[in-house]
């Protein structure tokens, strides 16, 4: 019998039944009064959830669109942008900014590490930057940036807006927008919200909105906060057709998050991540990110000597688990395991067991059950702490 396939890549993540049900509903007119009410409520709930006095926008698109929107609404040609990069997704801001005629300076870390906050502060003091971009959890490396500390530093520079890419973090890593000094937070639906891909979600705080106003007309209309904000206040109005079912699905996701409790959700992600990482290390894998800056949403897992990446991942699919390949220097040397959103202990235990079976079939000596023992021991200890 074929195993059920668990999609354990770092997004899209597994969707749970209540969210699937929303995606499967018969689509209604986007002017249907019930849908308009749902959409309006969702926007308010999202604003409250992550705490901004500014605005929240939910737009058809992906995280990449949200990255471009953040830049397009806060900068103009020849502005200076400081890009803090902890991997492939941090680097993507460089090309985006250059295409818009922005001057970019890049502070990049080694993969698996983060740029020290002191270095960021020093750089921000060298000239006026209109914006700084930071990737909260870089999906290429599995590192997590110290967002609260960076937010405190950026606050000292009143002309600089803090743009945070939360695509692989929002709804799993603490992000309190106004409180942490985040001016624009952006994410997508397919990661820790546990919805299918297709929504770009942005929170823009008061400073970012002021900046947007100061820019006047911007060249791109689909990207423009000023086109979307009136729709978010009154979704009966039209700008671009809203993806009705995804919006319902996101509303369901927010309902699940509220039922779990945001703090509990953050804690669950942290406890699970640390336990999974300890379990994998116990059987000979290494985790790329250093312990002090490990993401809670995914792990970049380096193979022990003698395990062939292609063969392992093929066997793992046969055992019922899909993971993603390592990137750049880590292609062939590591795999990327997503563990975010609405996954439960059953899914995690099944994933670890499948990893053991695939390793065994690949000829690597495994003590069966070891990952599960370490996962449970670490988890139960942290849950009772
Ligand atoms: C950290 C990060 N930023 C941005 C993106 C781009 O998002 P999308 O693929 O939804 O366009 C991704 C995608 O994986 C990501 O992980």
Describe the fold and architecture.
Helices cover 42% and strands 16% of the residues. With 385 residues, it is of the alpha/beta class. The chain has two domains: 6-12 and 261-384, Aspartate Aminotransferase, domain 1, CATH 3.90.1150.10; 17-259, Aspartate Aminotransferase, domain 2 (3-Layer(aba) Sandwich), CATH 3.40.640. The protein has a seven-stranded mixed β-sheet, with helices on both faces. A four-stranded antiparallel β-sheet has the order 11-12-15-14, with helices on one face. The model has no long low-confidence stretch (mean pLDDT 97). The site of pyridoxal-5'-phosphate (PLP) has 12 residues, from helix 3.
Helix-strand blueprint:
Elements: E1 6-7, H1 17-23, H2 33-50, E2 55-60, H3 63-72, E3 80-85, H4 88-99, E4 103-108, H5 117-124, E5 131-135, E6 137-138, E7 143-144, H6 147-155, E8 161-165, E9 184-188, E10 199-204, H7 206-214, H8 225-233, H9 244-260, H10 262-282, E11 286-287, E12 298-302, H11 309-318, E13 321-322, E14 324-325, E15 334-338, H12 345-361, H13 370-384
Parallel strand pairs: 1-13, 3-4, 3-5, 5-8, 8-9
Antiparallel strand pairs: 2-10, 6-7, 9-10, 11-12, 12-15, 14-15
Helix pairs in contact: 1-9, 2-9, 5-6, 9-10, 10-13, 11-12
Pyridoxal-5'-phosphate binds at residues 11, 62-64, 89, 135, 138-139, 165, 167-168, 188.
């Amino acid at each position: 019998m074929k195993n059920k396939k668990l999609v354990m890549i770092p997004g899209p993540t597994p969707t749970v039944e209540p969210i699937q049900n929303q995606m499967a509903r018969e689509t209604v007119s986007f002017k249907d009064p019930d849908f308009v009410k749902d959409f309006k409520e969702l926007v308010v709930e999202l604003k409250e959830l992550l705490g901004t006095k500014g605005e929240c926008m939910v737009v058809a698109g992906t995280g990449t669109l949200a990255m471009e929107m953040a830049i397009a609404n806060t900068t103009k040609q020849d502005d200076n942008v400081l890009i803090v990069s902890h991997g492939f997704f941090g680097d993507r801001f460089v090309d985006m900014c250059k295409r818009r005629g922005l001057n970019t300076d890049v502070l990049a870390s080694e993969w698996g590490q983060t740029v020290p906050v002191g270095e960021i502060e020093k750089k921000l003091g060298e000239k006026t930057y209109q914006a700084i971009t930071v990737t909260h959890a870089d999906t290429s490396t599995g590192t997590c940036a110290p967002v609260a500390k960076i937010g405190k530093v950026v606050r000292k520079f009143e002309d600089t807006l803090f743009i945070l890419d939360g695509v692989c973090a929002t709804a799993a890593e603490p992000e309190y927008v106004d409180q942490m000094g985040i001016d624009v937070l952006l994410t997508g639906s397919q990661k820790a919200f546990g919805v299918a891909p297709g929504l770009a979600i942005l929170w823009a705080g008061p400073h970012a909105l002021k900046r947007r106003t100061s820019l006047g007309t911007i060249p791109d209309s689909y990207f423009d906060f000023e086109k979307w904000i009136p729709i978010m206040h009154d979704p009966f109005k039209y700008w671009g057709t809203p993806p009705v079912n995804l919006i319902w699905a996101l509303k369901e996701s927010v309902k699940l998050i509220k039922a779990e409790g945001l703090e509990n959700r953050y804690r669950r992600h942290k406890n699970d991540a640390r336990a999974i990482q300890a379990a994998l290390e116990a059987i000979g894998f290494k985790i790329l990110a250093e312990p002090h800056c490990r993401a809670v949403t995914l792990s970049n897992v380096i193979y022990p000597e003698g395990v062939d990446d292609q063969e392992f991942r093929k066997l793992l699919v046969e055992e019922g688990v899909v993971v993603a390949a390592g990137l750049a220097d880590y292609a062939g040397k590591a795999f990327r395991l997503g563990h975010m959103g609405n996954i439960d202990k059953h899914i995690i235990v099944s994933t670890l067991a499948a990893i053991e079976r695939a390793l065994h079939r690949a000829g690597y000596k495994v003590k069966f059950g070891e990952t599960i023992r370490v996962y449970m021991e670490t988890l139960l200890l942290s849950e009772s702490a």
